[in-house]
């Protein structure tokens, strides 16, 4: 049955794509959000501080991005927004371990199967160049409408790191902070629109016979809120060029090292009271 669905879907994409010119372009707007569930010791972090942390993190993960695309290339970039105020004070610090910022630019070339990701990570700009990771999507029979577009469901399973039940840690115990994460199977669900015949999507999601309009990846949700096809003003798509050039593996190694250094810096010293929260973003 899955083979039949796959064949019919691809046939539909090929039929629809004949109606598009070779210079087909578009701009899709996406909104992201991430559900948050933090367990903190109320004897160490009072209710007011917990509320501030949750409010800041909610804003941090509610963002708007634009995907500018043509038949084989795309640029994915966050829309500019005001910086979120940092939470901290007294004997308490919240440490965000990860990368991301308004200057980040993700360029993808689905024809060459390569990407260039310009990221501002902890005050330094990196230019990550590598091959697009192949996603082994499973095409499902489910359909639904997102706006005017009939979308089809696809899923795939990957292994992800799980640090603890909430994905966060709140401790001044170095042994707990340094605890190795567990690996678990994780199902990602995407909804794609064959009416827009490009095998692309937001962030690093791609590889389906139609533009991906919605993604559910664990606690992360990405939803398309607007699409403009063939805008009057031609869009310009160019790979970013600024930053220290590395591949994805090297960048991940650098980030792991920086994360450990940051946690050591904020860890309470002997004889000094304090509390820190480590927040790892990714997966």
Q: What's the short story on this structure?
A:
The protein is of the alpha+beta class and 283 residues long. It contains four helices and 16 strands.
How does this structure look, described?
The protein has a domain of 197 residues. Helix content is 19%, strand content 41%. The longest helix has 19 residues.
The ordered H/E elements are HEHEEEEEEEEEEHEEEEHE
Structural class: alpha+beta
* Number of separate strands: 16
Helix content: 10-25%
Q: Could you tell me how far the N terminus lies from the C terminus, measured between alpha carbons in angstroms?
A: 31 Å
> What is the percentage of strand-forming residues?
35-45%
Q: Unreliable stretches, pLDDT < 50, 5 or more residues?
A: 10-19, 165-177
Oligomer status: single chain
Going across the major beta sheet, what is the strand order?
9-10-12-13-14-1-2-3-6-7-8-15
On the 0-100 scale, what is the average pLDDT? 79
Number of helices: 4
What best-fitting shape do the alpha-carbon axes yield?
globular
Keywords:
283 residues, alpha+beta, 12-stranded mixed sheet, 4-stranded mixed sheet, 4 helices, 19% helix, globular
Write the layout of secondary structure elements.
Layout: H1 2-17, E1 25-34, H2 47-61, E2 63-70, E3 73-78, E4 88-89, E5 92-97, E6 105-109, E7 114-121, E8 124-131, E9 138-146, E10 149-162, E11 168-170, H3 174-177, E12 182-193, E13 211-217, E14 220-229, E15 244-246, H4 248-266, E16 275-280
Parallel strand pairs: 5-16, 8-15
Antiparallel strand pairs: 1-2, 1-14, 2-3, 3-6, 4-5, 6-7, 7-8, 9-10, 10-12, 11-16, 12-13, 13-14
